Amino acid sequence: MERLSVSVAIPTTGRPDYLDVALRSVLPQARALGAEVLVVDDGPSEETRAVATRHGIRCLTHPRRRGLNASRNAAIDATDADLVCLLDDDVAVDDGWLRALVDAAAADPQLGALGGPVRPALDGRPDSDAEHRMPAISRLVLAPDEDQDTDQLWGANLAVRRTWVDRIGPFDPTHTMSSGDEEEWLRRLIAAGGRVRYVAAAGVAHRRIAPDATTTALSRAQFHRGAATRQADQRAGRAPGIGGELRTLAANLAGLARHRDAPHRWTTAHAAGRAREALLGYAPPPPPDGPWTPSVDDAFSGTSGLVAGRRAHLLRAHDRWLDLRNAASGTGRALARLADAAPRRRVLVVIPARPRNAALVDALRSHLRSDRHDVDLRAEDPAGRPRFAVIEETAASAPGFDWLLIVDDDVALGGGRVSWLDRFVGLCEAAELDLAQPAHRRHGHAAWPVTRRVPGAVWRETTFVEIGPVTAIARRAADVLLPFPSGTGMGWGLDAHWAAVAAEHGWRLGIVDALPVDHSHAPAGSGYDTGDARAAAEALLADRPWLPRWELRTVARHDDVPPAR
Predict the structure, then answer these.
(1) What's the confidence (pLDDT) of residue 33?
(2) What span, in angstroms and rounded, lies between the C-alpha atoms of 211 and 346?
(3) pLDDT value for 184
(4) Which residues in the chain show pLDDT less than 70?
(5) Region of residue 383 (left: phi > 0; alpha: psi -120 to 50; beta: else)
(6) Alpha-carbon span 552 to 96, nearest angstrom
(7) Among residues 273, 271, 269, which one has the least CA distance to residue 219?
(8) SS3 148
(9) Other CB atoms within 10 A of residue 215 CB
(10) Burial of residue 385, with CB atoms counted within 10 A of its CB: 0-12 exposed, 13-18 middle, 19 or more buried
(11) What Rg do the C-alpha atoms of the chain give, in angstroms?
């Protein structure tokens, strides 16, 4: 039997009480087998570090949140153990959990990943027969409950063999959703010939304590989990159509009307989250089957984004409703408070301003004023020069900015007691974004569907920020991106290149849904020769890294205004 060195790693984000219980359950087993235990503080959180210190274990700290998969990768990089056992911070392991995983791995060197049952444990709630009969949306127990090869394990209870990580690469750090975060890695493992093993004796209890264990809180969590699982299914190419999701929701509503118990509320909330994501969310295009031959066409969205006719009127009404809902929810007031708390910054605003759009530019000025920041607004007539040549020349003449805000001359920004710029910069500062843009209103012209406003979201972390109509570049990103590559012209393909550069540097990208822009004055690309723009993009990307359109997506959604920093 193979002899393995073992580490146990627990990524966590500001949940010291959960973490304390997880460590108390793991440490006796780890010490008995000589395994290291480490915590990855994806925050940072003083309380988390205090818990780790109290238990006498190593704690890795991220200076800002990077996501679950990035934390898993950091843990794997921080140890040279042959087997790294990954746990969520809200579990308690069963007796014999670690021994079962180690023995199974040692007995079969071909296993690349192992895991076991995940059973819900709700504080103050009995594990009722009704809950056992419900679909496994929070429970993973394979039938029969015995050791077996599988293609399904959950990241809450997942051990990975280092040799396979070295062979197929780390977890995808751009995937930070609350469900399916481990699935892509497992698919890669199986595709490369690795095996995945379910170990029945290696179980964990997936804990929820008050107030997280109330029916309302669990229903809310299942709604968001439903949306996340729908996104994971879309990425895997197995998501049913909208009709299928609506039929599932209808069946759950009928079951809830008959039974009116907590488990049916949870499954109905889960189905509602999936249906809402199918109706209002963005489904990224699927990756190609088999090997991919790079083509410049894959750097473009493949859609015009034009909105017209009856659809434009309906979506305009939807935008008005979303504006009213934001106002009623207090999001606008929270953004105003965030703007007041933001550190003072130097903001260079560049508008390539064509004379024919002078009235639109004049309207923009009032929204780009600031009561908080030092704003240098430059409205420059391109006079036949390419857009990015104007931006680069202006930025070079005004060094020392903290933010470069690029604004097209044909957009409209929303008003308010606090200027649009102050609210936008305040959120970008609080979210620690390096590249950012406001979302497009749903009735506006937007070539990239991922950039359209998502109902209910305040902002989203993404792998992509487009080159316009409004783009914000923080100082540390500007130091890398400026000067722009020669021949950038109108910028086609540049955002796909930026996405690759951002991934390389670990930048945080975001789209702000709560402060959308109206880009309905003219369709994208209507003011210049798109053939020339495409040719420039082909030359631009020929010898530079870039991400294809199926990698340009939302990786985390945030429905609350972030706290001031």
Answers:
(1) 96
(2) 43
(3) 85
(4) 1, 124-138, 174-180, 281-284, 286, 289-290, 522-528
(5) left
(6) 42
(7) 269
(8) strand
(9) 15
(10) middle
(11) 25
* Alpha-carbon dihedral sign for residues 190, 195, 200, 202: negative
Please name which of 91, 185, 65 lies closest in space to residue 556, comparing C-alpha atoms: 65
**Cα dihedral 441, 446, 451, 452 sign:** positive
C-alpha to C-alpha distance for 565 and 426, rounded to whole angstroms: 10
| Distance, CA of 42 to CA of 521 (rounded, Å) | 42
pTM, rounded to two decimals: 0.70
**Residues counted in the chain:** 565
Angle between helices 16-33 and 97-107 in degrees, nearest 10: 50
Nearest Cα residue to 180 out of 149, 152, 143: 152
Angle CA(345)–CA(348)–CA(349) in degrees, nearest 5? 125
The residues that bridge with 509 in the sheet, in sequence order, are 435, 462
Q: Please provide residue 482's backbone torsions phi and psi, each rounded to the nearest 5 degrees.
A: -100, 140
The string of DSSP letters for 505-559 reads: HT--EEEEEEEEEB--SS-TTTTS-HHHHHHHHHHHHTTS----GGG--EEEEE-
Map residue 492 onto helix, strand or coil. coil
**Tokens representing residue 35 in the block:** 């395994």
Beta strand 157-161 with 111-115: parallel, antiparallel or unpaired?
antiparallel
